[in-house]
């Protein structure tokens, strides 16, 4: 019988509160926010110590990435349906009849086409892997990141690694 070993972290500091808006999504075009929860699952071969990854290292990486988005306005860098102007002191977004003007320090311009949980989960996956690359973890088969914006809905992004 083939067996897989996986680890999963969730809760605690593995989340963030942020606001955003979604072009073409009706009421979601209005500025609104969520308390996002992030779950990370990794499948791999346990090392000589019997672990896939040290939970402390994984939680630290996830928390660091989440903190970079916490209490910020998330703006999609690659959204083609609006005009984005990011200056040193302010960020302006114009689409249709709407114009948002935010202090630059309150924003994170995310390299995605929309700030949906689907796109954010994939962005977080890449950012978490970059944080973990600083360590010595090489035995991962895949990593999956889930982002929920409510108690009953979550988007998942998985990347095969080995």
TrEMBL record:
Matching InterPro entries: 6-PTP_synth/QueD, 6-PTP_synth/QueD_sf
Record-given protein name: 6-carboxytetrahydropterin synthase
Cofactor entry: Zn(2+)
TM regions (residue ranges): none
Pfam families referenced in this protein's UniProt entry, alphabetically: PTPS (PF01242)
GO molecular function: lyase activity; metal ion binding
Keywords noted in UniProt: Lyase, Metal-binding, Zinc
Organism field: hydrothermal vent metagenome
Lyase as UniProt keyword: yes
Origin organism lineage: unclassified sequences, metagenomes, ecological metagenomes
């Amino acid at each position: 019988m083939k067996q897989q070993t996986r680890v999963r972290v969730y809760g605690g500091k593995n989340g963030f509160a942020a606001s955003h808006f979604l072009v073409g999504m009706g009421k979601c075009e209005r500025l609104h926010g969520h308390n996002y929860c992030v779950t990370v699952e990794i499948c791999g071969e346990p090392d000589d110590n019997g672990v896939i990854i040290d939970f402390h290292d994984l939680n630290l990486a996830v928390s660091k990435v989440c903190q970079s988005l916490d209490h910020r306005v998330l703006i999609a860098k690659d959204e083609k349906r609006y005009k984005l102007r990011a200056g040193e002191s302010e960020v302006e977004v114009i689409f249709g009849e709407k114009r948002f003007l935010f202090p630059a320090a309150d924003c994170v311009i995310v390299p995605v086409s929309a700030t949906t949980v689907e796109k954010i989960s994939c962005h977080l996956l890449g950012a978490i892997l970059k944080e973990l690359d600083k360590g010595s973890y090489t035995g991962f088969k895949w990593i999956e990141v889930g982002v929920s914006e409510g108690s009953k809905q979550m988007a998942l992004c998985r990347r095969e690694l080995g």
